[in-house]
Write a structure and sequence with these properties.
InterPro entries: DUF2909. This is DUF2909 domain-containing protein. Keywords: Membrane, Transmembrane, Transmembrane helix. With about 70 residues, the protein is mainly α. It has a domain of about 45 residues. The chain contains two helices and no strands.
Amino acid sequence: MNTLFVFKLVLVLLLLFIVFNLARALFLLVKGDSETPMSHFLGRRIIFSLLVVVLILIALGSGVINPNPRPY
């Protein structure tokens, strides 16, 4: 498999996991009663969002992905 494909697949899976945790927190907010606090899922979302940003920065620095060229 291509390295770029694997990197993009990991990013998409992480982003889907972030959306899933956000939906779980919303469900707990609406439902109201649960043993797990809503902040548990929101904290996970923040940690994985930071992981996505760090992975993108590492990929940009190592040359795995290239940014769009400047328009001017």
